[in-house]
Design goal:
The chain is α/β, with parallel strands linked by helices. Helices cover 32% and strands 27% of the residues. Bound molecules: uridine-diphosphate-N-acetylglucosamine.
């Protein structure tokens, strides 16, 4: 449970952790590489702890040195048990990596935050095109590549982040060339390609809509620095925005923040981007954030939608959200209403009439970013907000309460 005594006024500087959505595929990629991988700036979050458990189950040795995670690849097993797969959806990217390394993989359907139906049909059909035979039975996937993995042309009907990563992982050590058309362009795709190429892979065009992978024979582990977490960064920007704060984020990649700047500009915040840092100065009262339409990168990210909704809840005027990526991603709206927000949800559209002030209330986190949005709202609200089921938030934030407390908020985490 996270307890916040609001309202806060945030000030000061904060460093941003490594990106969750980069680290998970990077850890899957470490399965393919012989020898040792060292990930610098690796976030200590519960999803990474789950990935470490998966690696250890596979026979890899993992150890932490401060924020570096060292993985020694000594794989002995090519199966992931149901309890570990059920912990998080991104465990599905281990599929491509394990088949690449062992020629086979057995794993069950993945779990993760409930954001509506999250099928894996694109993963499966793409991997089949690379010569991987996949049988589904009893909620599990049995995958074999009896003739090895063979390059092919894959055209994704939607630029799925996970499917793009799975194909990259499966194809990096294959016979021939793979082309992914309509590939996801998220920064985390570029980070995965950078790591794989440093290990000996030949991947071109990551970050663009068409990725070309020339298969190589084998990969060797290397040292790699995980990119900064752009969603954690925008969470703290929203925290400053709703509190009339003035904070500086350090260790960020400003290029990755650009697609998320418009609601800050619309609402009257002053954002200055300076090298690897960003300063945000918020007005006493925000304006509306106007229109937010979530889209694949470089559009506005779905993961940032909930925290921006907390800004809209206290902005002067009406804001409209259109959630185009996940069907069930407004669970935080009902909780924000308990704090006095005026929000109407109709399918993928949410209309937010900003109110002058929110009041603290007991609320529940139903997923990771929705939970973070409630913390942001709690900073703006007067009185006490308790966010229960904060375990969802720990999936992606190393220490959200400690970070915000260091910026002046009265916030603490209770066991
Ligand atoms: C990744 C991110 C997640 C982010 C999402 C969209 C990680 C660990 N997670 O999730 O934080 O919210 O990208 O930016 O990186 N889809 C299908 N069939 C498939 C795969 C996806 O229909 O086989 C649909 C999904 O249901 C969803 C959309 O495509 O509607 C986007 O999914 P995808 O890009 O695959 O997201 P994830 O990789 O799961």
């Amino acid at each position: 449970m996270i307890v916040i005594d609001g309202p806060a006024e945030l000030g000061g500087e904060i460093s941003i952790q490594g990106a969750k959505n980069s680290t998970l595929p990077l850890l899957a990629a470490a399965v393919i590489c012989k020898g040792q991988t060292v990930l610098h700036n690796c976030p200590k979050i519960s999803d990474v702890k789950t990935a470490v458990q998966i690696l250890e189950h596979l026979g890899c040795r993992c150890c932490w040195e401060d924020s570096d995670l060292i993985v020694d690849n000594a794989m002995t097993c090519c199966e992931i048990p149901q309890d570990l797969m059920g912990e998080m959806r991104s465990s599905i990217v281990f599929l491509g990596a394990i088949v690449s390394r062992c020629g086979q993989a057995d794993l069950c359907f993945p779990g993760g935050c409930e954001l509506g139906p999250r099928p894996i049909d694109l993963h499966i059909s793409s991997l089949k095109k690379l010569g991987i035979e996949i049988e589904e039975s009893g909620g599990c996937l049995h995958c074999r590549a009896p003739n090895g993995i063979e390059g092919n042309y894959i055209s994704l009907s939607f630029p799925s982040v996970g499917a793009t990563e799975n194909v990259m992982l499966a194809a990096v050590c294959s016979k021939g060339t793979t082309i992914i058309a309509n590939a996801a362009r998220e920064p985390e795709i570029g980070d995965l390609a950078a790591y794989l190429n440093r290990c000996g892979g030949r991947i071109y065009g990551a970050g663009e809509g068409c990725i070309i992978i020339d298969g190589v024979k084998e990969l060797y582990g290397c040292e790699h620095r995980v990119i900064p977490d752009r969603i954690v960064a925008v969470t703290y920007m929203a925290s400053a925005a709703v509190t009339g704060g003035n904070i500086t984020l350090k260790d960020i990649d400003n290029a990755h923040i650009l697609p998320m700047l418009s609601p800050f500009e619309e609402s009257g915040c002053e954002v200055r981007q300076l090298g690897g840092a960003l300063n945000i100065m918020a007005p006493r009262r925000l304006n509306a954030v106007k229109h937010i339409r979530t889209m694949p990168y470089p559009g506005f990210p779905t993961d940032a939608q909930p925290v921006i909704m907390s800004m809209a809840a206290v902005g002067r005027g009406t804001s409209v959200f259109v959630e185009n990526i996940f069907e069930n991603r407004y669970k935080h709206a009902g909780e924000l209403q308990r704090m006095g927000a005026k929000i109407k949800v109709e399918g993928k559209v949410a209309v937010v009439e900003g109110v002058e002030a929110l009041s603290g209330a007991p609320v529940t986190a139903y997923d990771l970013r929705g939970g973070a949005a409630l913390v942001v709202a709690g900073l703006a609200a007067s009185g006490k907000t308790t966010v229960s089921d904060a375990g969802f938030i720990a999936r992606g934030y190393e220490d959200i309460a400690g970070d915000l407390a260091s910026l002046g908020a009265r916030i603490r985490e209770l066991p």
